[in-house]
Amino acid sequence: MIPVAVNSTPSPAIHPAWLPPESFRALGSRRIRVDATGPLADTVRAEVSRACDLFGGTVQPTGAPADLILALDPGRSGDGFRLGRRGAVTVVVADGASGLLYGLFEVVRRGEAAFDQTLADERQEPAFGLRVLDHWDNVFVHRVMGQVERGYSGGSIFWQDGRLRDDLTRVGDYARLLAASGINAVTVNNVNVHAGETHLLTDRLGEVATIASTLRPYGIRLHLSINFAAPVILGDLPTADPLDPDVRRWWSDTTDRVFETIPDFGGYLVKADSEGQPGPFSYGRTHADGANMLADALAPHGAPVRWRAFVYNHRQDWRDRSTDRARAAHDHFAPLDGQFRDNVILQVKHGPMDFQTREPVSPVLLAMPNTRLAVELQVTQEYTGQQRHVCYLPPMWSGVLGFHPTGDDAPTLAERVSAGPAGSASRSGPGRSPAGVGTGGRASVRTAAGGVLSAVANVGDDPFWTGHPLAQANLYAVGRLAWTPDRAPAAILDEWITLTFPAAPAALRHVLHALMDDSWETYEQYTAPLGVGFMVRPGHHYGPDVDGYEYTPWGTYHFADRDGVGVDRTAATGTGFTTQYPVPWSERFEHPGTCPDELLLFFHHVPYAHVLHSGSTVIQHIYDTHFAGAQRVAEMQSRWAEADGLVAPALHARVTERLAEQRRSAEEWRDQLNTYFHRKSGIPDAKGRPIH
Amino acid sequence: MIPVAVNSTPSPAIHPAWLPPESFRALGSRRIRVDATGPLADTVRAEVSRACDLFGGTVQPTGAPADLILALDPGRSGDGFRLGRRGAVTVVVADGASGLLYGLFEVVRRGEAAFDQTLADERQEPAFGLRVLDHWDNVFVHRVMGQVERGYSGGSIFWQDGRLRDDLTRVGDYARLLAASGINAVTVNNVNVHAGETHLLTDRLGEVATIASTLRPYGIRLHLSINFAAPVILGDLPTADPLDPDVRRWWSDTTDRVFETIPDFGGYLVKADSEGQPGPFSYGRTHADGANMLADALAPHGAPVRWRAFVYNHRQDWRDRSTDRARAAHDHFAPLDGQFRDNVILQVKHGPMDFQTREPVSPVLLAMPNTRLAVELQVTQEYTGQQRHVCYLPPMWSGVLGFHPTGDDAPTLAERVSAGPAGSASRSGPGRSPAGVGTGGRASVRTAAGGVLSAVANVGDDPFWTGHPLAQANLYAVGRLAWTPDRAPAAILDEWITLTFPAAPAALRHVLHALMDDSWETYEQYTAPLGVGFMVRPGHHYGPDVDGYEYTPWGTYHFADRDGVGVDRTAATGTGFTTQYPVPWSERFEHPGTCPDELLLFFHHVPYAHVLHSGSTVIQHIYDTHFAGAQRVAEMQSRWAEADGLVAPALHARVTERLAEQRRSAEEWRDQLNTYFHRKSGIPDAKGRPIH
Fold this sequence. Notes:
alpha/beta, homodimer, 20 strands, 6-stranded mixed sheet, 22 helices, 8-stranded parallel β-barrel, disordered N terminus
């Protein structure tokens, strides 16, 4: 491995996100010892040293007096650490080298409080062992999707016009930011692996290795999205059949070469048989056949393959009401439970559709007790305002991770997924140790021990990283939730504010909470109502178009007519999707009387006069929420004006500009939705507000 | 001028369209004299010679006995000719050299009948003096629009990837086809003149001259679309203000250089202040100011500028019902009547919107008695099936040209436009002779004497020229209607069949008439109903999307709600568009009781239960026509199967493939439209047919 120097402070033109130099003041003004050796300990030492240079502290040699000691527990390994006071000294004792890094950033996060006499002893370890950000970055600019698919922050930080960027400074800065948020892996190319990108796996592996070296000092491992047809495209084989011996050998040899070049390579990510991508169905094989082939190639290296469950018929006939896209992943994958190798991770979008503003939890996540699972979130705001709208997503993610699949007192989804397969210790197979691949040694870092949380990244080469400066908070939060899924969204936001705006006055803190705490709910208010989803412009997915997908092959319908709206997914009269859930949810979702309001139209087709638990009718709820949502955005504009002078002018200006667009867009949503439903229902707004 | 050899027969890979060698048999087996000299006479002689080589006839010297004599009337000029028998000899006496060419092709068209003893004497001359096809071809492939904007026949025959094609054989073949149909001018670049294409006017004029040389042997003059901002882009001037002396000088000098290079250059075409194109509004000037500036630059050369009237606000707010795109051209241009130079031709789309399947005639064409006008038709099937659907357009065009603006006994639109401005002989101004620019000498060919018919071309580098082989008939027909606007569409189709399929058996003729005669009506049946227009997918404009443009800035709405549908354009309660028409149409359109059924929803918002003149309700009409239209397409498929073996296999296969897509698309239109209106109205189909 090539040692890479710890990066200097980002260029002043690039916003420092949640690691401005000032956030290191409490740390950097102390005497600090790092009682450990090795590459990650070197990174920690360099961080400490830089902070001390800035704020007058000192890096102490082993044995010397210190205010903070960072040390390793030789009996343990992994990402966890203990933090506490030993007399007048604050101590971080890490399970492994990576824990040293996470402990350091915990001290940064706490600031002066980390050195307070009253600091309570605390142990932290991540709920999810693999915490990975997937970049949908293309190497070559895609004719339709551009450099970054569903990217709203400029170009890729890795790739530019067909090649690796010459200057990877930002990649190093990015690794540092991610480590400080708790992330430990990154996938550097789009899951839609186009012909050019397929070559990253072989003849362009050198470029990949360069990125891996840049990420490595911060404990970030590199994953690669691969093309299932690679043996045909790259290997000149006549088939990519996963049961063909030549194909299996090709993957095995190719994977060996990947690990020769990148010894700590993280693993593969695969989108197969989905939206036009090739996959095992082409050869009459199952997804277990496909995933297991790749797992077998990776197993000798202790690495996993993440196999996406996002498989559905995107050539649906809207006239056929029996097909239900929401059912597709469960229909495809649930029967395969128990057939996957232990180093296969089935990566499942958090909802059954596609990252809508509101969806129920995917039943696949509740149906596969014998399969390693990854919960996939979307940080990039494809359907949630595309980083032109403020939309702080942790409240949504908390709802997903804290969902109780089998009843309010049973374990949460996060607890189930992070615990891993129920019977994994007793099963055997290639690449599996008696205690599972995830236990012990080098492999433990890479594979699915403790479950997997993945998220589609939202950064680009924009000076603010995320286009909308406030969208940085979503990126920060995903790592924090991967450590502690039950951490309150408002508390994470508070952390982010403290780090990003050191010494923020209370007024700024109030403004930011006012803008962001409820911004997901606000966004939901002025967009598609009551869980029905979509209603966006086809293609780019921004702005309203109620019928945009209504008569298309994509399987995303609302069935609004003059009498009512919603999708009947009940067992009694609908598509039967509700039966994919365990009790009690199968029953709760089945009946309008027990179905939560916010998901009513996802599960039921109801008359406009249907009365919600809230007491309002569906139609009046549509009017009320759309007027309220747009009104809230207007108030956000006013609140943000109060922050003028409290943040850097460039940041203030950027947010101001985005809020103007958010307001325009929210009013467009309000008016289109209200007009659409007024024209259909004929029912006037009870409050007589203007509907066009 | 560089003499260019008459092109040989098109390459076998390219379909010969309506000039297969066989169509020359009657001519080519006779003794023929061409009693004239000059370039066009040379073309005629070469055509005759080639036909005789094929079929055993002879080209006779002056004075020798002949079966056909083509000669010039020294006392006349222009495109007209007389055809008749003088004893045993068929004689063409042409007004001018171009008439010789048109007379020759008339003899070809008649075949053996041209040599029949009973041939009656006849004089032919074109109703429209300028008969021009406008190509929306880009030199550089446009990111969104491709090589040809709204092109459905492959690439441009002129341009490829930023440059003039090396091989212009097809351009020569194209000129020959156009001459045989009666066309006499071609515009070789898109009216949306992008930055690269702007240079055709100056430093890339050599390429334009090469095309002009290739068109010239068949009497086709070249026109160029120009960029109003050219003085800024090309001339380094700080402004393109049409009243600025430097700008005027730049246009004058530039135009002089164009004519130095291309002495018979045809004129300019301009789309200004429309859909993002620059124009005089940027400088606070009127469209008369803009057009007159260019007219003044062209006047010394006796050439016209065609100025498009397609100006409207494409940033409309759908919430503002007072704005009406249909009004825009009249609102902008009618007040300018009388302010344009005589060599300005205001080019007006035939309807007030944008080449929809059914529109009323544009009121601009009825409102400007003191302005030279061009009627603009669209041969390329942007909104009429994109050359995947059979849609024979002459029935629509005949309706436009034969429209009686001021009453059923008054002159037709074609008669009015072809007569030119009422008082032009008594007016004076730059570039105007006492009898008008259009009279006498070289200028008569180029300018607007006899009015102007223009049409957006539909050809590309496809082997069949037009993608759909049957779309050739539209291209053929536009020239024929420009000569004789009252020629029956079925008769033109019959001519086209005779030429294109020489010796076609009656069975083939019947099949082609069955497919094509009513195909426009069929297309209308399964698409947007009763003149309301659009309902297409935004952007590419193919296939149904009822609400696709409903909430957009483009000004193309239908206002369907649960009670009714249509746009109220009345004076009494609507946008007042009806007042732009003269009596009796202003009154007829104003009242649902007198408004023609086929335009009802263009002018009126009516309840679904409104009873049409046909006796059906609006909603039942929608259901009935959509079921009928799709059914007709299924029948077209069956009929075409009968033509197997009667046409070349490649042509049969191409039409078969297109009909399959037309059927799929027609059924999609049927089902989306029926479902949409059933969901809105709640009224069941009286015949109980399946609505999804």
